[in-house]
Amino acid sequence: MADLPEKTVSDSRVQISRLTLPEHANPLGQVHGGVIMRMVDEAGAICAMRHARRPCVTVMVDSMTFDSPVRVGELVSCEASVNYVGETSLEVYVRVRAENPLSGDVTHTNTARLVYVALDDRGRPAKVPGLHVETEAERRRWEAGAERHRRALEHRARGQSTDE
Predict the structure, then answer these.
(1) pTM for the whole thing?
(2) HSE (CB half, 13 Å, CA atoms) of 106?
């Protein structure tokens, strides 16, 4: 990967926001989890593509937690940043917040970690730039991502899924 210059976390960070409408919700006025999951994947994929400067596809949703509901009329924001990069894969962390645009109240609603693979012009895995971490928090996320990546490779080598 020497021919690809390293990038910082801030080089590829992305935030997308969307106003939630009645068609996004259940009869209780809460936004469907699938709507949030789609936004999370979109933000994560854009972040991965910004880092790799290549098309990236979702390989795995490593974790997705829902801490509080999003209600119709709230502005949902997904902020995505790269945690870890392998040779062709990227782990992206997405933090989701809901804001009441009238009161200004902001609630952390959920978080997710997703893994993407960069693709070359033939649709095969392509090398990605390294990640230069600049803060202690970024270093901790990098180390945790490296450990998850190592475990996933070990499980794959033994023919096991990562959830066994």
Answers:
(1) 0.90
(2) 7
Which residues span the domain enclosing 83? 7-133
- Which backbone phi and psi does 126 adopt, to 5 degrees? -125, 150
Collapsed DSSP state (helix, strand, coil) of residue 114: strand
Give every CB contact of residue 19 below 8 A, 6+ residues apart in sequence. 73, 74, 75, 76, 101
CATH of the domain at 39: 3.10.129.10
Q: pLDDT tens for residues 17-60?
A: 999 999 999 999 999 999 999 999 999 999 999 999 999 999 99
Residue 163, domain member (yes or no): no
Instruction: Kindly state whether residue 150 falls inside one of the protein's structural domains.
Output: no
The total number of structural domains in the chain stands at 1
- Give the pairing type, strands 131-132 and 106-118: unpaired
